[in-house]
Amino acid sequence: MTEHDESADQQLKPVDVIAHSALPVAGLMQIILGHWGTQVVSTLATLGIPDSLADGPRSAEDLAEQHRADPRALYRVLRAAATLRVLDHTEDETFSLTEAGHFLRTDYPFSMRYNAMLHGSRWHWDPWSLAPEAVRKGGETFSDHHGLPYYEYIDRHPEEGDLFDHAMTAMAAQAQLLAVPLHDFGKHKVVVDVGGGAGVVLSNLLETHAGLRGVLFDRERVVDNAKGLLTEAGFADRVEFVPGDMFASVPGGGDCYLLSMVLNDYNDDKARKLLENCRAAMDEDATLVLFDMVIPGNGTPSFATLGDIECLVVSGGELRTEPELNTLLGSAGFRLEAVHRGFSPVCAVVAKPE
Ligand SMILES: C[S@@+](CC[C@H](N)C(=O)[O-])C[C@H]1O[C@@H](n2cnc3c(N)ncnc32)[C@H](O)[C@@H]1O
């Protein structure tokens, strides 16, 4: 055998192909083509197909007629969704929801429909195509693409704003609520929920602790929505609704200040300003609680490292390690007391005024 033949032979050994080539390449291809799956699931959610499958299997033709879609194109998307195990595809050419597929229904408990729609939507997705630029300049590309930072953009585009709010509300019910038991909110009298969104977390706190009162502080449009939800839940008389800009000031009067999935939206300079505004509103013995994903550091793989890139590209913010949070909190007049980790990637970070 010539030297050349030997190397060709080595390249063809199945064991090498499996151990050193096929699996890593297949895995890499899956990552490279991840947006195919995102778009298939987002398309189903946007068209409302999972809602139409809630009562059982249906054919592509039947669904296409209801949703005024092209039957062949819809069939192909349904078939792809079956490969992703979001749908089941039967031999008689009908489609039904798998266990995961039900979570794309609007009315399903812990529905992820709006998150699927948000992350596949053109306006939210397009800035990701500029991710290399975000890395070059070290900041968000959302405003490069849309001409406005994220929150200003959704204020001026109500449909997109509604989608974002719905997605955040669903995320809060999935992830943030799992962080609630990590801190004893029962020892507080008034929780000021800064950037409290639709009030999912505050509602849960008020339900769990009968003696607790709350302040829901957010942008005007968001506070108006939250008022409806918290009133419906029967908590209106225990909540003060305060619209405003947290970068101008934060309401006083609380003995606990909660920033739930808020700090990650900002770079260190803006995050420090926000923390300083909280500190200025707080008494010496008040408590600051952050619900945030905390990056484990030391090279440990973590979902939070990917969420961090969403922050970089979309809002210009970042997720932080415990030492980074310690430094940031210290620079804004706080002492980091504890980082409590639970079942979800969202941790409860507790700090006290220095
Ligand atoms: C990622 S969401 C988190 C919502 C909620 N705390 C949760 O855990 O689901 C960030 C929130 O910060 C609010 N926000 C953004 N900029 C703000 C500002 N300048 N002043 C007050 N709230 C703001 C947004 O409206 C949004 O509700």
UniProtKB/TrEMBL annotation:
Q: Which residues form the O-methyltransferase dimerisation domain?
A: 29-104
Q: Which UniProt keywords apply?
A: Methyltransferase, S-adenosyl-L-methionine, Transferase
* SUPFAM superfamilies linked to this entry: S-adenosyl-L-methionine-dependent methyltransferases, Winged helix' DNA-binding domain
Signal peptide (residue range): none
**Residue limits of the O-methyltransferase C-terminal domain?**
132-335
One protein family per Pfam: Methyltransf_2
> Which top-level group of life is the source organism from?
Bacteria
Query: What are the BP-aspect GO terms?
Result: methylation
A single GO molecular-function term is: methyltransferase activity
InterPro entries in UniProt: COMT-like, COMT_C, COMT_dimerisation, SAM-dependent_MTases_sf, WH-like_DNA-bd_sf, WH_DNA-bd_sf
| Name listed for the protein in its UniProt record | Methyltransferase
Species per Swiss-Prot/TrEMBL record? Streptomyces cuspidosporus
